């Protein structure tokens, strides 16, 4: 039996993109095997390819599991497409044109009932054709020839952009060793225009046979009484089914229905699985791998009635041209729920021991935070020791035209809900308090601004902060060793302590005058003495608008 084996060298495993591991292929009566060459298994780390043992670098495909074998032209010469009965597609690239006859004869001899098909690629360049779903892939066919393939496993979201347009978004590479910086360009979104209508029965066709068309393509109607639906909606639903988007399956660990999401806005159902979570909304559905979650925060809103759970994502999720690097979930503090977790649904239930419980009966926000923490194996940062004037974890502030809450945490600042920002202390060069103690025509100003000067990036300025919060913010800066500068001279450190809500206007003016002197901008004693030659003509130094001698401010500026 050993003499009947066929062997090929320098063959690449191309089941997943960005794999640069080369190895050897052997075909025998038991099936097809690929083994990485010596020193090539490092490139396989972090991948979850079916039938692949990463530690040994061996891919073993049994003869009884094979359904179709196809030969086609690829970027690395020629490739072998291996269709499995469970819908999985494996790819092996790097064959030469001379290998075709050897491979064809081996398949005919060793695999009875299977033949090596030749898959001709359409090169017409047309942008219209017919989609064909086979297993976990969709082929776009022109003149009954495949033009390109889309792996459904990489679809992160799909939605109806309009009545006849379907948008499909893709997630990035999944290998741990893959770095986005310097990586080649990749497809992140594609849109299909699907005109016409079809029947519900046509959309329910799930045949995997190549050449079988959806209802919107073949126009067949099994029953004249079937309700007609948009062909685009049927196409959209088919992609969701094949990509497992929006599907409520029994193998999820836990499901949280109708969670209020502030960013992106709306209510979403959250299904938690072993390696990813699924957000199900009315219009958008998202599939988020846990490895995309970078950091998590659990903070209380200033009203003390609501809790925000902030989840940082990289890469972010998209809605059209809008990117959302953070999920902001809002909960009612007093809302409690009893939840049972299906831990047995995990591929390795033992890995969750000590991280999750099988039953929770506590506030909903605490359950969600604990489940996220256990499944992602990442820390949840909660509000630190900082307390605002009224005892809240954060202070109300505005970033440009957006109102929100600024949370001084142990290692950085968090601003939520929109736009959500996390600014680490290590990235801050200095801070400046602006308009502290300033006065207006109606009296002392009730708010001040906080400017964060960053290291080598754009600065952030938070405005409309209540003056009562100044003392606690200054204590926070001193406690964490953040350099404070004067608004008058950002190269001179200054303290504004003592200028709280009870300070009078004269004390505030004296502090600012002292800051001028410290910066070397103060005047001499002669300049600050009284002007004995000045004679007031009236009780009011500033003429009113209705006075005969009133002059506009623009005119006075020109005279000066």
Question: Overview of this structure, please?
Answer:
It is a single chain. The chain is mainly beta and 560 residues long. It has 9 helices and 37 strands. The strands form 8 sheets. It has a 9-stranded mixed beta sheet, with helices on one face. The longest helix has 14 residues, at 505-518. The protein is elongated and about 90 Å long. It starts with 5 loop residues before the first strand and ends with a helix. The relative contact order is 0.06. Mean pLDDT is 80; it is low at 203-224, 246-250, 491-512, 518-529 and 534-560.
User: What strand order characterises the main sheet?
Assistant: 4-5-3-2-1-8-7-6-9
For the secondary structure, the number of strands is 37
Oligomer: single chain
Largest sheet: 9 strands, mixed
Rough shape? elongated
Helix content: 10-25%
Poorly predicted runs: 203-224, 246-250, 491-512, 518-529, 534-560
Query: What's the helix count?
Result: 9
Strand content: 35-45%
Alpha-carbon distance between the two ends: 104 Å
Rg from alpha-carbon coordinates:
33 Å
Q: What structural class do the secondary elements suggest?
A: mainly beta
Query: Mean pLDDT, as a whole number?
Result: 80
């Amino acid at each position: 039996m050993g003499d009947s084996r066929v062997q090929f060298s320098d063959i690449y495993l191309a089941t997943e993109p960005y794999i640069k591991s080369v190895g050897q292929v052997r075909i025998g009566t038991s099936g097809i095997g690929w083994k990485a060459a010596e020193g090539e298994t490092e490139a396989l780390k972090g991948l979850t390819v079916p039938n692949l043992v990463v530690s040994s670098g061996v891919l073993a495909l049994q003869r009884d599991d094979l359904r179709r074998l196809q030969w086609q032209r690829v970027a690395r010469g020629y490739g072998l497409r291996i269709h499995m009965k469970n819908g999985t597609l494996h790819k092996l690239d790097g064959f030469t044109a001379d290998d075709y006859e050897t491979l064809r004869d081996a398949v005919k001899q060793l695999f009875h009932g299977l033949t090596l098909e030749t898959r001709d690629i359409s090169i017409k360049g047309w942008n219209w054709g017919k989609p064909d779903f086979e297993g976990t892939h969709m082929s776009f066919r022109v003149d009954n020839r495949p033009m390109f393939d889309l792996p459904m496993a990489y679809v992160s979201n799909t939605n109806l952009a309009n009545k006849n347009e379907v948008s499909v978004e893709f997630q990035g590479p999944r290998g741990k060793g893959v770095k986005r910086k310097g990586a080649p360009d990749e497809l992140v979104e594609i849109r299909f225009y699907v005109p016409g209508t079809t029947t519900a029965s046509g959309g329910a066709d799930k045949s995997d046979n190549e050449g079988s068309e959806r209802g919107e393509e073949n126009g067949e109607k099994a029953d004249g009484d079937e309700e007609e639906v948009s062909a685009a909606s049927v196409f959209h639903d088919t992609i969701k089914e094949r990509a497992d988007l929006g599907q409520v399956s029994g193998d999820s660990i836990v499901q949280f229905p109708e969670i209020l999401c502030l960013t992106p806005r709306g209510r979403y159902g959250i299904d938690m699985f072993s390696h990813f979570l699924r957000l199900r909304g009315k219009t958008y559905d998202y599939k988020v791998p846990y490895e995309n979650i970078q950091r998590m925060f659990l903070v209380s809103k200033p009203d003390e009635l609501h809790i925000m759970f902030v989840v940082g994502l990289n890469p972010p999720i998209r809605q059209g041209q809008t990117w959302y690097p953070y999920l902001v979930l809002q909960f009612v503090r007093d809302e409690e729920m009893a939840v049972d977790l299906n831990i047995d649904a995990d591929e390795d239930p033992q890995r969750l021991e000590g991280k999750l419980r099988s039953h929770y009966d506590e506030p909903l926000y605490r359950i969600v935070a604990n489940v996220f923490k256990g499944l992602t194996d990442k820390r949840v940062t909660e509000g630190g020791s900082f307390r605002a004037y009224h005892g809240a974890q954060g202070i109300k502030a505005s970033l440009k035209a957006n109102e929100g809450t600024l949370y001084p945490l142990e290692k950085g600042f968090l601003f939520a809900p929109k736009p959500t920002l996390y600014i680490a202390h290590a990235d801050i060069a200095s801070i400046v308090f602006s308009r502290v103690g300033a006065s207006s025509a109606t009296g002392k100003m009730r708010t001040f601004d906080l400017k964060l000067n960053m290291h080598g990036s754009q600065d952030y300025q938070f405005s409309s902060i209540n003056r009562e919060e100044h003392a606690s913010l200054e204590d926070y800066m001193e406690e964490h060793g953040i350099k404070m500068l004067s608004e008058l001279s950002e190269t001179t450190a200054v303290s504004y302590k003592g200028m709280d809500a009870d300070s009078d206007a004269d004390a505030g003016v004296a502090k600012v005058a002292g800051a001028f002197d410290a910066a070397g901008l103060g005047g001499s004693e002669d300049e600050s003495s009284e002007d004995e030659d000045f004679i007031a003509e009236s009780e009011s130094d500033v003429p009113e608008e209705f006075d005969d001698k009133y002059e506009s401010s623009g005119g006075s500026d020109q005279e000066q």
